[in-house]
């Protein structure tokens, strides 16, 4: 069976094998292999970096675990409590709600940022004013998150906030500020995050779009694709790895950056915006329950790492990239 | 399946003229090669045909239909790109199915057509692979497969086999030619390789600096080049083009050169006198010259400059009066470098070009 198949294809493969496409197997080898040069000094060269890394990341990591297993107090010495800190988290409504709010917040931010970011990038790509506009769009990113929070705090202000007045005029809001209402406060935060970080997505996507091979776009056009279809079948699969990096960065940031939340709502009104990192901040640095805070931080860290690894795994898997390309096609069909 | 007419087409990139007042007619089902060096405007022409480039002036017709304003997808064309332009995230089968899926053909038909095309190109065992797993020759066949899965009105080939190695290129020339004749689809094929053009085309359009130099069958282009540029570009080894002066001796025209004199008669003689030109280029292909170590009447005397073996033939360069003649001869020729030798020629194969304009005067 194998032989007939091979014979059938002989005409083409014969040519290619002649040209060394197929590796040839030898049934003999050299008498002895030459010794490869040894490079011992590379350990020395890497040592400073490894030591610094250990000091700033590995040591705090283990210290975090240590704290999470103790009742930590400034006045008295630490007391071993075993997994008590963790056990108590399960009964803590604020902790479980914190997770739900964090997932909601992160999902909203990511979806909006990716959608708006990609659309902006597509519009900007090849536009005459691309350079100027990119610089303008980048401005929010240059701002420190706390400053951004303060700026929006004034814009949202119920008495003199310009955006508040705008929202009110369109009829979206009543007298209360967007941040003061339990139903809208989360949106207030999402808008700030989207405002500040969509440019990052745009920038990364734009870099991806620059690398979409022109000939593939043209081939697809000749194959019969319009511009929208061209985007979904050629551009999107090509920028897919870039988008994954953007998602990875943004989701980890959402799990860490709470500067603007602390400035704008501090978790309120009520607990409407007390996403897990904010709650962690409260427990550790408002109530100084460092042990419990460390336990929360550790669970947060583990989830972040696991999610990150999953994303990286998808990123490395070429089969998933095809799946994304196909998904793009079906939405367009 | 449609005739193509390119009428007074110009292409500008800013101030630069890429194509200048181009007029071409391709008959229905014809295989036309656009031949020229890089930067001659051949790719611009192809891209205007495909709708990837705006036509600055003039118009292109497919049959009676003006296509200037049509998007590529509405032109009913299929194109093979120089770099194959395969979609890296799709398998070979998906790559080949793309034009059909764009046209909304149902799944069963798509699968069948892709399989048929793959069998024809002998790539049916590769259908599940990604382009990165393919060799250059295989990629190229997939690109062709993507083109032949449907029956478009026009095939456009943009140097499709330029990146293959010589042996595979020779094989693909045969395959493409056979395929085109089999399917009878009007084909425009852009190439810089004169051998490809000569071996495949029904007619060749030779372009240089954005201007069409000559349009004719391969035989016409090869044996009756209209100017020195076409004469020099087509044919390998290149035609000998030697600058000579025109003189008359007893009313008989002749060409004089430091190293030799050629007596002209008949048609060539009349042509040489007609234009009253002082200098002419004497053109003759290497295979129409004979070299020998023995003196014969009328032969050009020179010394052997180099010997290059071309496989079945030997290319001898003979130096005479600061100029070199290339002669294609049998490897049995015994002349060693620096030895005197004698070139005889048949004026029936000779060409005369104006030294000033480069145009053929015969």
TrEMBL record, chain A:
Entries under InterPro entries matching the protein: MetI-like, MetI-like_sf, Sugar_ABC_transporter
The keyword Ribonucleoprotein is assigned to this record: no
Residue ranges crossing the lipid bilayer per the database entry: 43-66, 105-125, 132-156, 187-209, 229-249, 293-312
One GO biological process term: transmembrane transport
Keywords in alphabetical order: Membrane, Transmembrane, Transmembrane helix, Transport
Cell compartments where the protein resides: Cell membrane
Topology with respect to the bilayer: Multi-pass membrane protein
Domain ABC transmembrane type-1: 99-311
Signal peptide location: none
Principal localisation: membrane
A Gene Ontology term for the protein's cellular component: plasma membrane
Similarity comment: Belongs to the binding-protein-dependent transport system permease family.
Name used for this protein in its record: ABC transmembrane type-1 domain-containing protein
Source organism of this protein record: Rhodobium orientis
From TrEMBL, chain B:
Superkingdom per UniProt: Bacteria
Major localization class: membrane
Gene Ontology terms describing biological process: carbohydrate transport
SUPFAM superfamilies for this protein: MOP-like, P-loop containing nucleoside triphosphate hydrolases
The keyword Translocase appears for this protein: yes
GO molecular function: ABC-type transporter activity; ATP binding; ATP hydrolysis activity
Membrane topology: Peripheral membrane protein
Subcellular location: Cell inner membrane
UniProt keyword annotations, A-Z: ATP-binding, Cell membrane, Membrane, Nucleotide-binding, Translocase, Transport
One GO location term (cellular component): ATP-binding cassette (ABC) transporter complex, substrate-binding subunit-containing
Key word Ligase present: no
Residues covered by the ABC transporter domain: 4-234
PANTHER family recorded: MALTODEXTRIN IMPORT ATP-BINDING PROTEIN MSMX, TREHALOSE IMPORT ATP-BINDING PROTEIN SUGC
Homology family: Belongs to the ABC transporter superfamily.
The name this protein goes by in its record: ABC transporter domain-containing protein
The species this protein was found in: Rhodobium orientis
Lineage, broadest ranks: Bacteria, Pseudomonadati, Pseudomonadota, Alphaproteobacteria, Hyphomicrobiales
């Amino acid at each position: 069976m194998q032989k007939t198949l091979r014979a059938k294809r002989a005409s083409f493969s014969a040519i290619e094998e002649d040209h060394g496409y197929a590796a040839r197997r030898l049934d003999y080898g050299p008498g002895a292999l030459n010794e490869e040069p040894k490079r011992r000094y590379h350990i020395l060269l890497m040592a400073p970096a490894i030591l610094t890394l250990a000091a700033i990341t590995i040591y705090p990591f283990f210290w975090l675990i240590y704290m999470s297993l103790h009742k930590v107090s400034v006045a008295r010495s630490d007391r071993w409590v075993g997994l008590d800190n963790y056990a108590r988290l399960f009964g803590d409504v604020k902790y479980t709600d914190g997770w739900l709010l964090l997932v909601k917040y992160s999902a909203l931010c990511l979806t909006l940022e990716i959608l708006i970011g990609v659309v902006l990038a597509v519009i900007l790509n090849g536009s005459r004013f691309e350079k100027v506009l990119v610089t303008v769009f980048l401005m929010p990113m240059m701002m420190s998150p706390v400053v951004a929070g303060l700026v929006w705090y004034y814009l949202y202000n119920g008495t003199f906030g310009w955006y508040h007045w705008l929202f009110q005029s369109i009829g979206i809001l009543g007298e209360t500020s967007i941040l003061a209402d339990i139903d809208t406060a989360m949106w207030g935060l999402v808008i700030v995050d989207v405002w500040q970080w969509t440019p990052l997505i745009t920038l990364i996507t734009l870099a991806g779009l620059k690398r979409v091979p022109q000939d593939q776009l043209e081939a697809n056009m000749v194959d019969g694709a319009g511009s929208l279809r061209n985007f979904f079948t050629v551009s999107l699969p090509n920028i897919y790895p870039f988008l994954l990096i953007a998602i990875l960065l943004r989701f980890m940031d959402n799990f860490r950056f709470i500067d603007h939340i602390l400035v704008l709502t501090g978790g309120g009104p009520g607990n409407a915006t007390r996403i897990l990192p904010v709650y962690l901040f409260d427990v550790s640095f408002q109530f100084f329950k460092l042990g419990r805070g460390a336990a929360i931080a550790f669970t947060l860290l583990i989830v972040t790492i696991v999610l990150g690894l999953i994303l990286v795994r998808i990123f490395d898997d070429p089969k998933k990239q095809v799946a994304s390309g196909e998904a793009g096609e079906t939405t367009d069909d | 399946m449609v005739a193509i007419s390119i009428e007074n087409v110009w292409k500008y990139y800013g101030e630069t003229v890429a194509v200048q007042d181009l007029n071409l007619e391709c008959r229905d089902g014809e295989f036309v090669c656009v031949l020229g060096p890089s930067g001659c405007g051949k790719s611009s022409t192809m891209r205007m045909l495909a709708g990837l480039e705006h036509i600055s002036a003039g118009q292109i017709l497919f049959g009676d239909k003006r296509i200037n304003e049509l998007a590529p997808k509405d032109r009913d064309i299929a194109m093979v790109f120089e770099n194959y332009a395969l979609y890296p995230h799709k398998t070979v089968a998906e790559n080949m199915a793309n034009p059909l899926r764009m046209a909304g053909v149902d799944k069963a038909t798509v699968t069948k057509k892709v399989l048929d095309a793959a069998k024809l190109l002998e790539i049916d065992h590769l259908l599940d692979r990604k382009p990165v797993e393919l060799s250059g020759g295989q990629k190229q066949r997939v690109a062709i497969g993507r083109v032949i899965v449907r029956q478009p009105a026009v095939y456009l080939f943009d140097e499709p086999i330029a990146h293959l190695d010589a042996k595979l290129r020779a094989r693909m020339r045969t395959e493409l030619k056979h395929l085109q004749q089999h399917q009878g689809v009007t084909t425009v094929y852009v190439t810089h390789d004169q051998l490809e053009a000569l071996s495949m085309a029904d007619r060749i359009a030779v372009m240089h600096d954005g201007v069409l130099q000559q349009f004719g069958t391969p035989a016409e282009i090869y044996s009756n080049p209209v100017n020195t540029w076409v004469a020099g570009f087509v044919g390998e080894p290149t035609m000998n083009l030697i600058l000579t002066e025109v003189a008359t001796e007893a009313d008989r025209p002749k060409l004089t050169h430091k190293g030799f004199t050629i007596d002209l008669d008949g048609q060539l003689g009349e042509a040489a006198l007609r234009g009253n030109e002082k200098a002419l280029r004497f053109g003759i292909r290497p295979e129409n010259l004979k070299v020998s170590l023995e003196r014969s009447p009328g032969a050009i005397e020179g010394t052997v400059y180099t010997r290059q073996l071309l496989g079945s033939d030997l290319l001898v360069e003979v130096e005479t009066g600061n100029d070199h003649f290339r002669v294609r001869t049998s490897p049995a020729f015994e002349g060693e470098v620096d030895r005197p030798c004698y070139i005889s020629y048949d004026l029936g194969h000779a060409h005369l070009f104006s030294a000033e304009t480069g145009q053929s005067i015969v």
